[in-house]
Amino acid sequence: MIKRALIIGGTGIVGRNLAEHLLSRGDWAIAGLSRGRTPAPAGVESITTDLTSAASVTEALKGRQFSHVFFTAWSRQATEAENIRVNGAMVANVLAALGPTGALSHAALVTGLKHYLGPFEAYAQGSVPTTPFREEQSRQPVDNFYYEQEDRLFDAARQYGFGWSVHRPHTIIGYAVGNAMNMGVTLAVYASLCKETGESFVFPGSAAQWNGLTDVTDARLLARQLEWAATSASARNEAFNVVNGDVFRWSWMWARIAEYFGIEPAPFDGQVRPLENRMQQTRKTWADIAARHALAEHDIDKLVSWWHTDADLGRPMEVLTDMSKSRKLGFLDYQCTPDAFVDLFERLKRERIIP
Q1: Rounded Cα–Cα distance for residues 100 and 298 (Å)
Q2: Which of 116, 146, 175, 190 is catalytic?
Q3: Which residues contact 105 (CB under 8 A, 6 or more apart)?
Q4: Which residues lie across from 109 on neighbouring strands?
Q5: pLDDT (tens digit, 0 to 9) for every residue of the chain, 355 residues total?
Q6: CA distance 351 to 178
Q7: How far apart are CA 179 and CA 84, in angstroms?
Q8: Helix (H) or strand (E) holding 240
């Protein structure tokens, strides 16, 4: 039987990789709901709407039925109060439109490790849970739009009788262009700039991240967990962490990334040197590189998220994730992290995103 999925944010790093995965399975029909600024992957029906408007969402989804909905998008706002209002409404608006159809069997929400760390404006304030983070650890006593999204999901599930799952990835590595939270592409562009200009490949983050153990999440593995949870009775009404399954130190990984691009990593001296501060003058440089190599995107601002990569690599504490819960319930997938970076870099070259 064909399952009908609606992906909220179908052109982003999570949504795009999820759509490609589900299409490869052969028993899914996929529609993507977004603002329409980026083309949807081939084979995905594109639905354009303003997710923050209940009327717009209702009109866009009128007469449509979906068995599964996946929330993979968020809208960054100036304050956490606005994040809560806007992003909570996005979940509520879609579920209010789909719930009454009676066709919806499962809704999945992708959030992240700020569930444990707190949002950017209250990042790691107060008592951060002991690592590795586990799903049973309680919410932080701060405002957090992830909690609002969860609560809107839980309310709608009770009202309309569908199942749910929540997925908490760490930093996501995967192919997407124009995404606001994309470390892999950001580092690829940064390394390409260093190679072209001869500038040093300087680690921008903290000593805690340079020296400590950490993990990341391949968007393809997240896609597989999303499908598993959406179709497995054992995963119904549960929240799951999701990471690759291996650990590393950035002091080791930074050298591997430099080696791939044929550049020398700068020695780390313990100082935080954010990319956002150092990369403000690179727009023309990238445009020149793109023209010289006939790249697909000349606007560096559509490729990178300096601020988000700085936030991830600048954390002053260890961030490590436990995967026992989903493994015990049957999700045994794994992704080698060095391979995740190389696979991404190779695809970026094939798509003419980097030289």
Answers
A1: 45
A2: 146
A3: 67, 68, 162, 163
A4: 71, 166
A5: 899 999 999 889 999 999 999 999 999 999 999 877 778 888 999 999 999 999 999 999 999 999 999 999 998 899 999 999 999 999 999 999 999 999 999 999 999 999 998 876 655 555 678 899 999 998 988 899 999 999 999 999 999 999 999 999 999 999 988 776 789 999 999 999 999 999 999 999 999 999 999 999 999 999 999 999 999 999 999 999 999 999 999 999 999 999 999 999 999 999 999 999 999 999 999 999 999 999 999 999 999 999 999 999 999 889 999 999 999 999 999 999 999 999 999 999 999 999 9
A6: 14
A7: 20
A8: strand 238-242
Number of C-beta neighbours around residue 186 at 10 A: 23
Q: How far is residue 11's CA from residue 22's CA, in Å, rounded to a whole number?
A: 14
Please tell us whether the domain made up of 3-169 is placed in CATH 3.30.420.40: no
Strands 213-214 and 248-249: antiparallel
Task: Using the Cα atoms of residue 127, residue 128, residue 131 and residue 137 in order, give the sign of their dihedral.
Answer: positive
**Marked catalytic residue, from 3, 114, 116, 175:** 114
* Terminal CA-CA length for the chain: 43
Strands of 74-150, DSSP E: 106-110
Q: Is position 190 annotated as part of the catalytic site?
A: no
Q: Indicate the helix (H) or strand (E) that contains 253.
A: helix 250-261
Q: Which residue has the tokens 């200009």?
A: 197
Structure tokens at 284: 């023309």
Known active-site residue 146: yes
Mapping DSSP to helix (H, G, I), strand (E, B) and coil, where does residue 158 land? helix
Residues of CATH 3.40.50.720 domain(s) within the chain?
3-169
Q: CB neighbours (10 Å) of residue 272?
A: 16
